[in-house]
Amino acid sequence: MICSSVLRRTNIAMDFSLRHCIIVALVLPFLLLLSNAASSSPPASHHHSQNLKSLHFTLFQHETINKTGYIIVNGVAGPGVTQTTTPFGTLFVFQDPLTVTANRSSKIAGTAQGTSITSSLDGLQSLSIAKINLRIKQHVGSISIVGATHNTKPSDHPVVGGTADFLFVQGYVTSSPVDLNGLTVTYKIEFHLYWPPYAVTKPSS
Question: Which of 92, 105, 138, 145 has its Cβ near the most Cβ atoms within 10 Å?
């Protein structure tokens, strides 16, 4: 009986040890794989930042009511039409020149064409969509932006696409009022553009 009991305990111990070894053998490769992946893969943002090609510059947008910009649909509420406000719901379209300085007579480096809808009851904010055609620093093409615009404060607009030398471009554009007096209003447009590593078409140098 003693030998039988010892034998059963020995068999149980061996069976437990065998199962333990099997579990370790199955789990260990996965643990090693996860460990190697964690130690060898750099953060995505770090890898991304090392491969970005960027371009930064400033142009000036000049918009003249009933010449380069027109109200297509009148708004329904809020303040009237001024240099900084339009009634809520107003649909506005524009095709404005972009110059290299704040002087309207300076060299034209592009055009901004798009539309906006007044989206705030105070008449100061709108949702804007624009295609910006550019010929700047040996780069020719266009970028598309979308976002919220404040008529009297700086506004950031994400870049959502591009063509030609700006194909696959990312970044943002900041619009800031410079001169809101008179029939023509002027905005400073700051471009912060980045090409990701997967971009097929690279800007010409």
Answer: 145
